[in-house]
Amino acid sequence: MILCEEDFTSHNMSKLVKGAVVPRPIAWVSTVDGKGIRNLAPFSFFTVASMEPITLCISIGGSDKEKDTLRNIRETEQFVINVVSESLANQMHESSKSYDHEVNEFEKSGTTASDSVIVTAPRVAEAPVTFECELDQVIEVGSSHLILGKVVCYHIKDGLIMGNDKIDPHKLAPVGRMAGDYSYIQNFYSLPNEDLPK
């Protein structure tokens, strides 16, 4: 099947794209608004944008109502990206539900809000890795918003570093986002590899 732009309206392109661009890492983003109301929400459109300076990016999809995460980032110009491990997957899922702005998703998900070092947004204390970020820019891309955040502080749990500043992926146990489901990321291999399917 070949789908060109004129064919997109006759297919569910969201499912076709999200089902192919997998597995995606999950940015569990914590923010706070100007009144101190905390927010915690996951986003699977997430990657590294630059290493000089270290910049991470997340994409927040468009909707009729502006998401609390986007509004808080615009207001405070700060946020935290927490890495989701397998042990936190259920809590992450709980925080993905639609709550009123005044609801604290840390409490709803049963996670601990811990003070950050530089930014005002709290960290998820249980997360194996967290990145404190200061907003670099918000770029409108169609109906979505691409958030670029400069990393100003990096938190990593003891025991995750193997040596030479490499993170042990088995201990990190990150969660991958598929189309509608999630995946374990547990098996690793190097290339070239003659055992791969032909």
From TrEMBL:
One of its GO terms (molecular function) is oxidoreductase activity. It comes from the Bacteria. SMART domains: Flavin_Reduct. InterPro entries: Flavin_Rdtase-like_dom (IPR002563), Split_barrel_FMN-bd (IPR012349). It holds the Pfam family Flavin_Reduct. Keywords: Flavoprotein, FMN, Oxidoreductase. Residues 19-169 form the Flavin reductase like domain. Belongs to the flavoredoxin family. This is Flavin reductase family protein. It comes from Halobacillus seohaensis. The lineage of its organism: Bacteria, Bacillati, Bacillota, Bacilli, Bacillales.
